[in-house]
Amino acid sequence: MDGETFPLFPAESLFPPEPRERSEPAPGTVHVPDWLSLPEQRGLVEACRAWARPPAGLRTVRMPRGGEMSVRMLSLGWHWYPYGYARTVVDGDGAPVKPFPPELGALAVRALAEAYGPRLPEIAGAVGYRPDIGVVNHYPHGAKMGLHRDREERIDAPVVSLSLGDSCVFRLGNAETRTRPWTDLELRSGDLLVFGGPSRFAYHGVLRTVPGTADPALGLVGRLNITVRQSGLT
Ligand SMILES: O=C(O)CCC(=O)C(=O)O
Ligand SMILES: [Fe+2]
Questions:
Q1: What was the ipTM of the complex prediction?
Q2: Where is the Fe2OG dioxygenase domain (predicted)?
């Protein structure tokens, strides 16, 4: 061969995708790409499907000023509504919230160990983490979530976030202001994101999802996000 080229394949298809590295985009926030295996992701999607059924199933959330959120939501353990927690779906069908599944709690405890490793004792509320809330968001195509802080919980134990289905652009801001500095991260199906310690009350949101990026094997249209939290409520 004398330098002749045969453009049979676009160059990028000759190489496997770059492995994505774990990162700590802000102190206390850890992103672990591809943490969940495909079977684990499928199991969680199936669980979400069951939780989504009424009563106390997936609902459209109306904000106090009258607008509707574009994501659809369901809660486990404690019902989140704007802005508080209740034991019943006070802004929906009035049914008792579904129980918080112990398996989800065990998964979240594992997630903290994975994210923080030997530093875990330095993170507020990480030792003896006893999560009791699951919030599931479904993002149909075009849905997003504005910048906000998760602050209806009474304690500063970390939040564990699991992403399933379509990728999204997640904006992680800071705890002081709604403005910069922020970091935009791509969250893909199976990714783990933990925000605790100095990041626990950081502003964050979802700028957009990327339709069609989910593995068809998941059988999911759009994106699901599960956050696991500890309420500090009794
Ligand atoms: O969908 C996400 O990745 C974030 C969800 C979120 O911020 C929330 O449920 O409070
Ligand atoms: Fe949030």
A1: 0.99
A2: 130-232
